[in-house]
Structure formats: C-alpha cells, structure tokens
Amino acid sequence: MLDVEKIRKDFPVLQNAKMQGKSLVYLDNGATTLKPQCVIDAIVNYYSNLGANAHRGDYDLSLEVDQLFEGVRTKVADLINCQKEEVVFTSGTTDSLNLVAYGYGLGHLNEGDEILINYSEHASNTLPWFEVAKKTGSKIKYIDLDEQGKIILENVKKAVTPNTKLVALAQVSNVLGYEIDLKEIIAFLHSKNIVVVVDGAQSVPHQKVDVQELDIDFLAFSAHKMCGPTGVGILYGKMSLLEMTNPTRYGGGSNARYDKECQIKLKEIPTRFESGTPNIAGVIGFGAAIDYLNSIGFDAIHKHEIELRKYAISKLKQVDKVIVYNENSTGPIAFNIKGVFAQDVASLFNKEGIAVRNGNHCAKLLHNFLNTNQTLRASLYFYNSVEDIDRFVEVCKKGDEFLDAFF
Ligand SMILES: Cc1ncc(COP(=O)(O)O)c(C=O)c1O
Questions:
Q1: Which ligand 1 atom is at minimum distance from the Cα of 361?
Q2: CATH match for 40-294 among 3.40.50.800, 3.40.640.10, 2.60.320.10, 3.10.20.310
Q3: Sequence-separated (6 or more) residues with CB below 8 Å from residue 374
Q4: Reduced to 3 states, what is the DSSP secondary structure of residue 322?
Q5: Partner of 336 at 20 to 30 A CA spacing, among 13, 89, 289, 367?
Q6: Does the C-beta of 128 come closer than 6 Å to ligand 1?
Q7: Which residue among 28, 89, 93, 182 is best mutated to probe the pocket of ligand 1, counting the most ligand atoms within 8 A of its Cβ?
Q8: Of the residues 82, 227, 262, 362, which is catalytic?
Q9: What is the Cα gyration radius of the chain?
Q10: Residue of the nearest CA to atom 16 in ligand 1?
C-alpha cells in the first residue's frame, strides 16, 4: 500500500487550500491534478537560475536549458517506450489530437472514407474529426457502446467497413472510466490497415502505457493530468506516420532554411512540429513530474486507485439515494443523487470542502446514452485517502437535504 499520508505532504495545495473553511478533499483529478513541490521547484529553478530560450543560443545557459528540455523528451520516450524522436511537445491533449487530425487526417482522408469515433469521447477527440470530415468529404461513424458504456471488440468489428480509414478512441473514457482492450482492438484494426489514434489523457497518468506493446499509431496526453504543469502535452506518433504528417504551425525553430520562392526546408522530426518558443518551464516541470511518478511507481499508483475506488463503491452502495453509472469501471466514479440536480449536489460538496465535477464533462454525446443531462464525477488519484472517501460518502448520505434544497 502507498504511504498516502507521506505522499500528501508533497502537495502544497493539500496542505494550504481550504474550501468554505474546511480542509480540501480534491476529487477532480480527471480535470487536472495537483502538483508536488518538486514540480513547482523545477519551474522556479528554470525561471530563477536559467532563464534562456531552448534551441537557440550557443552560450552555456542556453545549452543547459537545451539539455534539460531534450532530457524530458527522453524521459517521455522511456515512459511510453518509444524513440525520443517520436515524442512531439504540444500544449496538451487537445493540441495533440488537432495536430493528428489536421496534420495527418487532412492529407490522408478522402471523400467517402470513414472515421470511426464513439459516443463516450471527449470533445477534443470528436470535434477535430468533425472538422476534418467536413473538409475532406469523409464521414464520421460511431462504434456502438455495450450496455455498460464500454467499447468492445465485437462492436468495433461491426462498425468497420472497407471504407474505414481511421479510428480515434480514448483508452480510458473521462466520464465512465472504462479501460478498453486496446491490444486486441488495435490488432484487429491493423489487420484492416486502419490507423488508430488513442486519446491517453485519462490513461497515461494512471498506469503504464507501452506504445510498442499495444502497437499504438498516435497517442495524445497532457502533463497537467499527471502532476505536471498546464500548457504541456505530448503527441507520440510512429515515425513512419509522423513522416506522413504535416506541421500545422510554421515559424521559427522548425525550418532549416527557406527562400523568397517560398521553398521551405523543414528540420527533422519532431522539431518540425514545434515552431516557436515552447513552454520551456512547463516541459522542465513535466520532467520533474515524470521522475516523481516513477519514484512512486505506476503499478502502485494504479493499484491504490483501484482499491480506493472499490472502497468508495462499497460505501456508496449502502446509500440508497446514490445512482452509480459505472460500478465496474476502474476510472472516475460517475454518479447522481436521485431526483436532485447535479449542480446542486456539487454546491453541497463545495460547502463541505469537497471538489467534484458536475455537468457533461465535455462528452456531450454520452449523456443521451446515460439517459441523463448531467452527472457528477469523482475522480481519484494516488494522493487521495480513505478519509477523503469517507468525507465524500458522508455528503452523499445527506440525500434528503438535497431534496429539501430542490423542491
Ligand atoms: C479523455 C480526455 N481527452 C482530452 C482531454 C483534453 O485535455 P486537455 O484539456 O489537457 O487538452 C481531456 C480533458 O479532460 C480528457 O479527459
């Protein structure tokens, strides 16, 4: 078991923040995670002691920044088991998915081709594809969810046609939290020569993801959902696919030379995708986050979250007024209090110092499937404790108070 009490001391927000005068129970980790002191220190160190741009100067400080910056690329490559050249720094999962959609999709999808998505995807993994479909004349089609709301191979097989060219799907959905069996799904899709884009925003922070073992074509994720700073993301792409991807931004840093006839000679991959000054402090902070997570261990992180979730579900089952939509998943807990607006419930949680999310969680197509407009979401991370869950469940028990507030 993780020593959660010790771990919590690494997170200043858990020590300092109060909501409504109460110590914080932070259960909105699906939106973003808190940052440990070592990540904050790495950022402060860059601004306090280094300061120079990356990839620019021939002086010592600039070289040091370069080494730190490129060192983080290697850490990311080690994390997901790829070559460092296959790691592109972006501003987040949304940016990474847009880079695949516009940089790869626009050039390789044609009229009549089919892009498969599904109703549980985040807007960041639907809207870019809608736009690319409009621009290329390709069609958006949906893989049916099973009765729990999960993607299973059988339904993938049903949705694929000879026109299917690309499938975009989250390894773990941000609302229902089911982990899909990527290995078997990707093996099937590859047997049909279909490119697979994986949204790893809710998987990479919580478990070991090996892009080679799973044979992922493109993988997108965000630093801020794994103890790192906001404004940094990763796009992993197999080199053969990155070679077929156009940059979506042009400018300084990405070109080797250009002339007045508008001929541009781009730099090597991945530099050609990273025009402009990057989020240097953010990338360096992300490096510290990866070291920190590795020091705790992804297996231990995943195990702790699963055990804590099981504990939460066993407690919630004793509360009649609670509807849980995804009892068997391993991700966030999607729930409602019977007969009460999710927003009202979220305000009551707030009064008790507990941060949970309510709404449609950017997965606007899923709520038709769930037959409700809004859900609450409690998303856990390895610094959450049994005491956090107990305080959370105590608020759920106050179902009658919600009802008084509503009627
Ligand atoms: C599954 C999923 N995809 C994409 C995103 C977008 O991530 P970002 O806002 O960091 O770009 C999120 C964020 O909540 C998410 O949960």
A1: 14
A2: 3.40.640.10
A3: 336, 341, 342, 343, 358, 359, 360, 367
A4: strand
A5: 13
A6: no
A7: 93
A8: 362
A9: 22
A10: 174
Per-residue pLDDT of the chain (407 residues; tens, 9 = 90+): 799 999 999 999 999 999 999 999 999 999 999 999 999 999 999 999 999 999 877 899 999 999 999 999 999 999 999 999 999 999 999 999 999 999 999 999 999 999 999 999 999 999 999 999 999 999 999 999 999 999 999 999 999 999 999 999 999 999 899 999 999 999 999 999 999 999 999 999 999 999 999 999 999 999 999 999 999 999 999 999 999 999 999 999 898 999 999 999 999 999 999 999 999 999 999 999 999 999 999 999 999 999 999 999 999 999 999 999 999 999 999 999 998 888 889 899 999 999 999 987 677 788 778 888 889 999 999 999 999 999 999 999 986 565 555 43
Distance (angstroms) between ligand 1 centre and the Cα of 344 equals 25
How would you write 21-39 as a 3-class SS string? CEECEECECCCCCCCCHHH
Instruction: Return the CATH superfamily for domain 4-29+297-406.
Output: Aspartate Aminotransferase, domain 1 (3.90.1150.10)
Domain chopping of the chain, boundaries: 4-29+297-406, 40-294
Task: Kindly provide the b/e burial profile for residues 136-162, where b requires at least 16 CB atoms within 10 angstroms of the residue's own CB.
Answer: bebbebebebeeebbbbeebbeebbee
DSSP output for 337-365: ETTS-HHHHHHHHHHTTEE-EEE-TT-TT
CB of 93 within 6 A of ligand 1: the answer is: yes
120 CB near ligand 1 (under 6 Å): no
Taking the whole predicted model, whether its pTM rises above 0.90 is answered as yes
Mutational test site, ligand 1, from 222, 227, 234, max ligand atoms within 8 Å of CB:
222
62 C-alpha to center of ligand 1: Å?
32
Q: How far is the CA of 122 from the centre of ligand 1 (A)?
A: 7
361 lines ligand 1 (CB under 6 A): no
To the query of whether residue 82 is one of the catalytic residues in this protein, the response is no
Question: Do the two domains 4-29+297-406 and 40-294 of this chain adopt the same fold?
Answer: no
Pairwise CA distance, residues 69 & 253, whole Å = 14
Q: DSSP character for 373? A: S
